[in-house]
Amino acid sequence: MDPISKRTLLGAGLATGMAGLPSGASAAEPGRKLGYAILGLGYYATRIIMPRFAECEHSRLAALVSGAPEKLKTYGEQYGIPETHRYSYETFDRIIDNPDVDIVYVITPNSLHRPFTERAAKAGKHVMCEKPMANTAADCEAMIAACKKAGRKLMIGYRSRFQAHNIEAIKLVRDGALGPVRTVVTDHGFTIGDPKQWRLNGALAGGGSLMDIGIYSLNAARYLTGEEPVAVNAMESTDRADPRFREVEDIINFQLLFPSGATANCVSAYSANCNRYRVSGPKGWVEIDPATSYQGQAMRAQLGGPPASREPAPQPKNQFSAQLDHLSECILTGREPIVGGDEGLKDLRVIEAIYRAAREGRTVTL
């Protein structure tokens, strides 16, 4: 993500530009690749997302937005983005006049997701927003309302929903291969470093590990069961003497109860390395370890026989290009994304309940 200054934060909160839609907004004629503007030129944007446009069928990189002029120059030249299609955070609203941009992909610290989503929608652009969708459920609701008012689509960057092993696990559950889901166990964490990074800033991140890596545990529990939790328990473990955790939490263990009676035991951590889940039913289980990493997923299953490795059905695209193209295809065909704004809102509502359960030491109903 880009470094965030007070000037940037103030700029993000200023009036959001001209009303109305640009001429030729979403000129999504069949056969045309839709243009993305990448907003925020940090590691994930520049090293993971931007190179994947070369593999897309319906999407292309059309513009860049950053608070760092040197990044705009470096990546603009690397990807052949003209200076007219490079924007600072302060000049971003001028994107309303750029018909080459159909979609803005917001890849900034969490607290900036809402203002930039609202500004993009007001400029007549569809929005892809990284997860977590925002710092609060109220912010998520405002983002959904802004895109609805503008008649623009909103999608959240849940890339694992487009990854082959995760697609296979969901299919096995939906097809009844496990019988009714009874338990999900999912652990996600990594050892975080620099205490000065934005992820450890409470105002920018909205929280600690749960608002970052922990959302993979929560979202996996929801998409594996296909249900929404009705009750939450949680327990936090944080060493406040550690300079990394002066403002945000380290470990949160949380449990979810679903309407069917299925349960999920979940871990979110900034001081342990884990990335896995197992979903179980009366007929067997499926596990992926690593489960939601950028690459290297491995699946094992026990389905009526001894446990064995399992290869998923091949997918035509990797998770990143598939995610980018999914929103473009939805715009071109009028369909709704499988991970729209409502999906992000549901996660934030549960996250708020998890924090409350940990803080108050009690079960919180949803």
From TrEMBL:
The keyword Magnesium does not apply. Residues 35-158 form the Gfo/Idh/MocA-like oxidoreductase N-terminal domain. InterPro entries: Gfo/Idh/MocA-like_OxRdtase_C, Gfo/Idh/MocA-like_OxRdtase_N, Gfo/Idh/MocA_oxidrdct_glycsds, Glc-Fru_OxRdtase_bac, NAD(P)-bd_dom_sf. Residues 171-366 form the Gfo/Idh/MocA-like oxidoreductase C-terminal domain. Keywords: Oxidoreductase. PANTHER family: BCDNA.GH03377 (PTHR43818:SF11). This is Gfo/Idh/MocA family oxidoreductase. It comes from Caulobacter vibrioides.
